[in-house]
Write a structure and sequence with these properties.
Layout lengths: L6 H17 L2 H8 L7 H11 L17 H14 L5 H15 L2 H12 L5 E4 L5 H4 L19 E6 L2 E12 L6 E8 L6 E8 L5 E6 L8 E13 L8 H34 L3 E2 L2 E2 L4 H34 L6 H7 L4 H23 L11 H15 L2 H12 L2 E2 L2 E2 L2
Parallel strand pairs: 1-4
Antiparallel strand pairs: 2-3, 3-7, 4-5, 5-7, 6-7, 8-9, 10-11
Helix pairs in contact: 1-4, 4-8, 4-9, 5-6, 5-8, 8-9, 8-10, 8-11, 8-12, 9-11, 11-12, 11-13
Length: 412
């Protein structure tokens, strides 16, 4: 693995950092999260028009730039630094790869160019607590996580030549504002139970959406109610979507890890600035050895998490290139021997939690107030672990897949 960034990767980071510094300062961030959509449409248009960010990892044949998960992770690291609210995660990391991997050629040609140019946003409608299960990050995804029977969620039934969906999905990232919903639904009853993915227009008749109050306001979430809604099956009817979702999980984890590293690095940077200015007993508190030790521990944790996130992104891109012949996420999943993304995400979430906690503590009385941005990073750390963790389950799943424990004993 070559740890040096290419000139193109450096340019992506530099350009994106400059744009976000100008367009996503503290005042603009608060205005964006208080808006109905939960993000600034003008900033999203700039990210799409000037940088092509929504289509960064999409093939050029569908209007994308054709980069790998590495470049997408580097971009998300910069977005994470500023906690910039945008549909990037829901659209380009969760939904678009599924359309690319599972959709028919007609569906790809219709949807992906509009996603790439930023005119169409998308969301993966999976019950919030079940998202990591669906992506096989904290456990196998063969269970009834999409609904069915008394499990709630969304059910699908055939009606003539089409499908109808009914049910409710909570905690959908950008679900209240996305133009396209990729809905995971249960069908087949008890005897032939299976999970399928469906395409639903956000403004379709029978779709009722509302933004939910979330711990982390910079990651807006919505509640989606489907009341006998017409839906289009994603891909052919005989396609197994579970391996594709599991294959996507490692890429999602690598990108989320990079985003968390960006947030942790920014929280540490702001804390170092503050302790160099705040004085106590006639000297800056940053000069005290105890404060130096605490920040040194945070720095080591952030750098270790960055190394893990970069390796996970590189490994994911490398595996995608090696499995290009299979032309599907399912093929890559079967060729992958382990999941480095989940471990990197666990490391990054832990680093962010530590960095955000120290930021609140060392900022003193101002750190936990609504007026200061330190609490935003603390809420991002807590919210991400609720949505994509917890850390111990991510590590437990990785250990299980690596075969570290056999019949309760450590494998040697």
């Amino acid at each position: 693995m070559d740890t040096r960034l290419t000139a193109e990767q450096d340019e992506i980071r530099r350009t994106l950092r400059e744009l976000l510094r100008k367009r996503c300062d503290a005042e603009a961030l608060r205005a964006a999260v208080d808006s109905p959509a939960g993000y600034d449409p003008a900033l999203w248009s700039a990210l799409a028009g000037r940088l092509g960010l929504p289509g960064l990892a999409l093939p050029e044949a569908y209007g994308g730039i054709g980069c790998s998960a590495t470049e997408l992770a580097l971009a998300c690291e910069e977005v994470g630094r500023m906690l910039a609210p945008s549909p990037l995660l829901a659209t380009s990391v969760l939904a678009a790869p599924l359309v690319l991997a599972l959709g028919t050629e007609t569906q790809r040609a219709d949807l992906l160019p509009r996603i790439a140019d930023g005119t169409l946003t998308a969301a993966l409608a999976v019950p919030g607590p079940a998202l990591t299960t669906a992506l096989s990050l904290t456990g196998g995804n063969a269970g009834p996580w999409a609904g069915g029977g008394r499990a709630g969620g969304v059910q699908a039934r055939q009606s003539g030549d089409g499908w109808r969906l009914y049910g409710q999905v909570d905690q959908v990232l950008d679900g209240h504002s996305a133009g396209l919903l990729v809905v995971a639904a249960h069908t087949g009853g008890f005897a032939r139970s299976r999970t399928l993915l469906f395409l639903v227009a956000g403004d379709a008749v029978g779709v009722v959406r509302a933004r939910q109050t979330a711990l982390d306001a910079t990651r807006p979430q919505g509640r989606i109610q489907l009341r006998d809604v017409p839906a289009e099956l994603l891909g052919p009817a005989d396609q197994d979507v579970l391996p594709a979702l599991a294959g996507l999980g490692d890429t999602v984890a690598a990108v989320l890890a990079a985003e968390a590293v960006g947030a942790a690095d920014r929280a540490l940077e702001r804390t170092v600035e503050y302790v160099g200015q705040r004085e106590q007993f006639g000297r800056a508190i940053g000069s005290f050895q105890a404060v130096k030790h605490r920040l040194a521990d945070v720095y080591v944790g952030v750098q270790a998490a960055r190394s893990a996130a970069y390796y996970a992104a590189w490994a994911t891109a490398h595996e995608s290139e090696g499995a290009a012949r299979s032309a599907s996420l399912e093929g890559r999943w079967r060729e992958t021997g382990g999941r480095v993304g989940g471990l990197a995400l666990a490391q990054a979430l832990e680093a962010l939690r530590c960095a955000a906690g120290e930021a609140v503590q060392l900022h003193g009385g101002i750190g936990f107030t609504w007026e200061h941005e330190a609490h935003l990073y603390f809420k991002r750390a807590a919210g991400d672990e609720l949505l994509f963790g917890p850390v111990h389950r991510l590590r437990d799943r990785a250990a299980e897949e690596a075969g570290l424990f056999v019949r309760g004993e450590v494998a040697v």
